Structure formats: structure tokens, C-alpha cells
Amino acid sequence: MPIATVNPASGETVRTYQAMGEEEIERRLQLAEATFRTYRTTTFEERARLLHRAADLLEADRDEIGRVITTEMGKPVTQARAEAAKCAKAMRWYADHAAELLADEEPAEADVKDSGGSRALVRYRPLGPVLAVMPWNFPLWQVVRFAAPALMAGNVGLLKHASNVPGTALYLEGLFHRAGFTEGCFQTLLIGSAAVDDILRDERVKAATLTGSEPAGRAVAATAGEMIKKTVLELGGSDPFIVMPSADIDRAAEVAVTARTQNAGQSCIAAKRFIVHADVFDAFTERFVAGMKALRVGDPMEEDTQVGPLSSERGVEDLVELVEDAVRGGATVLCGGERPDGPGWFYPPTVLAGIDREMRIHREETFGPVATLYRVADLDEAVLIANDTDFGLSSNVWTRDEAEVDRFVRDLEAGGVYVNGMTASHPAFPFGGVKRSGYGRELSGHGIREFCNITTVWHGA
User: Fold this and answer.
1) Which of 20, 97, 271, 278 shows the smallest number of beta carbons within 10 Å?
2) Structural domain boundaries of the chain?
């Protein structure tokens, strides 16, 4: 895949970029290693000052970078600006909390004495250069939620971004440099996917994090396993959105529309499978379908656009195949379902009912504004369908019954359970999944400690 900015709203190539050669990659690896030796000795206060400066610059740039994001991957410009603001918030959160999250920990005095020592502590030390392989769908946020904690922990970053968002990738490198970080603290590598394996095998690279597809995660995990390097993987999702009889149906349907179509549905944590109790199925479906039909689809640069194009023609073709397979299998199209004529990679908000286990759309992730509806008789059936997937990223539950909440929290196989609200990432809460959605956690204290050397320091009596 060429490294290029291609406008999804028109299909036109805006700019192409030359991939870095071996000499430039080597220069940047050397720079990362050399920079780490000194950056690791900086204080939390110094790092926080730089990260606060980066947040201020990003916030000031949000209109400009918002237009870049929209041009590169099609997100409505209002959502792109909101993404920039969210990144600035996360930078400030880690700048303000990293020292506390990575403070030395002292074991219980009784345990120290039992060990035969006079004192002991646990210290979190940085690992070194971390390779980040990031996707296009949230081209700022996916990077910042790795970079902010990594930099605050004393690591340095090497970014291999998706090949269709090179302008955003280069902006990020420039942002951290403008903020005062030494050049080697954060570097963008304009490279294709084929170059990742050699870089990950390089001894100077100490760990890797990847957000993306399951095949990409398998490849990175395999190489990292061979090289015995730490990895964090956030892969696909097919999140359930469960609605029980006690729920606020009007609110659940309203949020369901946003949960399915934010970023044109191109989100791992977007709600994708809507599992609704039979007692409220018809009421929820009526409101949900009406909300999906009412969405404004169009030019993502227009302020009132709610759903823009998908990021690529391949993405549209994948959706078409999944919908057509479901219809052949007996699914009913309640709205949408037809690719529009004209330029750009658009697909309408679509709702399908009558889904069964034999359809591809039941098993595969739908990365676009297509929702599937399931009618269930009770909580047990809801849990059964919710867990009938290889993925386990997050989940949404709508009920006012605390006993039902307890059951869902106990039984849903996911990295998150969001009750009476849609899944959303926040710097204070751990984020990640189970099963084929990956392993490890981003964000919160758990995320910043993923790329630390957790060191025991023990003193004899």
C-alpha cells in the first residue's frame, strides 16, 4: 500500500510520500537509543512541563489538524476537532498524574522483615524505545494514548502509522518537537508494513504496541514472542449493546445511534450487535431505525455532517459483501443497505434484523455504519449471544435492575462493561480486551506501567 493522502470523500490522491530507506531508518534507531540514555534521567516535572506544552499546542492547532484528519480518512471535521481536544486532555492527565502512578511502592514492613531485609521498594523504570504500530481510524487519539504515558514514564517512541494518514503522523512528530522534546523522543517512521518486522527485531527496540487488525496483531506478537519483547495489542471488536425491559428505551435508542455510527462506525469499540429483550424489541427498533435514517450523510468538511465516507473503497466493499451475505441468508434490511452512486467511499447507516449464526456478519467485525439486531427472550439468551464472538473488547448494558447489572458484569466476556451509556475511552480508566481483541491495557495506571521495568530494590539487614 503506498504512503499517500487520498481523500475518501472524492477518491482523489492529494499527496504521495516517499518511504524511508534503510539508512534513514538506521539513523532514527540510533537517535532513539541515544536520546533514551539521557531522557530516562529527566524528572517527572520536566516531562510534565513538555507534555503540557504539547497539549497547549495541539489545542491551538485543532482546527488545522482537524482538516488534515478529515482529508486523510474522512471523519466529519467536528469529530476530528473533538479528537484533538480529547488528546490534549489525555496529555494533561498523564502530565499531572504520572509521578503519582509511578511512585515507588513500599511493601508491608512485616513482609520486609520476613524476607530478611531492612527495607525494600518497588520502582518503575522505563524500558527504552517503544515501537507503536497505529491505525487510521483515530489517527491522533490512538497515538497519543500510547505516547503520553510512554513519554511520561521516560521511554521514547517510534511511530509506524497507517499508510493513509502520513500527514497526521508527521504532524505528531513535529508537535512533540515544537513542545521542546528532544528530537529523538518521538519519531515518525514513514515506512510500509513490510519494514515493521526488521525494526521489531532490532535489539534497540525494547517493546511494541499495536492497535489494528487481528492479522497485524498476530504478526507483531509472533515476532515479539520470538525476540522475547513485551507487547500490548488492541485488536478488533464486535461489542454487544444489550437492552433489557427496565431500560430507558428512548435514551438507549438515541445513544445506540451514536454508538454505532460515530466515525462512520469505524471503531473497534463501536457497538455493533444490538441484543434487545423481546418485551421492548419493537419499541427500541422503531426508535433506533428512525434515528439511523435521520442521520446526515455527506461532505465531512461540512459542519452539519454526522456520517462521512469510509476511509477506503475496500472498506465499502467489505461492508457490501457482509450485508449481501446476510440478506441471502434471510436477514431483513430495515434501513440503508444500498451503496449510493457518486464519488467517494460512502455507505449509508444500515440496520439488519433476523441475524443467525451462519451469516458472516454474525461472526465478523463490521467496520462501518451497519447494525445487527437480535431479539432475545431473557438475560441468559442475551449473555449467550453477546459472548458468541471471538472478540471481547467492550460491552454496553441498558437496565435499571441491579441484579441484572451484577450478572452482566460477572458473565460478559469483555474488557469493559458500560451500564446505561456507550463505551468511551478515558485516560483514567484501563482500556483493552480479551479473547481475539488482544491483551494488555492502555490508559490509566495500568497503561503507563505496561512499558516499565518493575524493579524490586531490597536492602539486607
Assistant:
1) 278
2) 4-235+437-460, 239-426
